[in-house]
């Protein structure tokens, strides 16, 4: 997990899964590679809700991040782009 962005309004975290299954009960079996999937969690601090992007949504968001790396947007531009995802945020953030 890698924090990509943190402001008064949003947090964006890149979640990278393990590329291998954990070892099973048989020590003789090698670890089996899995198809690596990654995702992004966007937390809207204003509403207390989050959205998890994976699959094609994550790929589109990755393209947005690459564009930000090339163009160095202002904080207002980043926040405006993140604000477009808030309509997808349905899950309340629960702190354990």
Overall description:
By secondary structure, the chain is an alpha+beta fold. The protein has one domain (2-13, 37-92). Helix content is 27%, strand content 26%. It has a five-stranded antiparallel beta sheet with strand order 1-2-3-4-5. The model has no long low-confidence stretch (mean pLDDT 82). This is DUF3567 domain-containing protein.
Please provide the count of β strands: 5
Please state the structural category.
alpha+beta
Q: Which whole number gives the mean pLDDT?
A: 82
Question: Portion of residues in helices?
Answer: 25-40%
Q: Looking at the structure, what is the overall shape? A: globular
The Rg value, from CA coordinates, equals: 16 Å
Distance between the termini: 18 Å
Query: Count of DSSP helices?
Result: 2
- Low-confidence segments, given as residue ranges, are none
Number of domains: 1
The arrangement of helices and strands along the chain is EEEEHHE
Biggest sheet details: 5 strands, antiparallel
The amount of beta strand, in percent, is 25-35%
User: How do the strands of the widest beta sheet line up side by side?
Assistant: 1-2-3-4-5
InterPro entries: DUF3567
Pfam families: DUF3567 (PF12091)
Organism: Paenacidovorax caeni
Protein name: DUF3567 domain-containing protein
């Amino acid at each position: 997990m890698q924090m990509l962005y943190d402001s008064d309004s949003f947090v964006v975290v890149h979640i990278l899964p393990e590329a291998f299954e954990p070892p099973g009960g048989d020590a003789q079996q090698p670890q089996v590679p899995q198809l690596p999937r990654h995702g992004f969690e966007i937390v809207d601090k204003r509403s207390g809700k989050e959205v998890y992007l994976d699959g094609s949504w994550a790929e589109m968001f990755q393209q947005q991040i690459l564009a930000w790396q090339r163009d160095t947007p202002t904080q207002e531009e980043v926040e405006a782009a993140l604000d477009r995802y808030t309509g997808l945020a349905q899950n309340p953030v629960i702190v354990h």
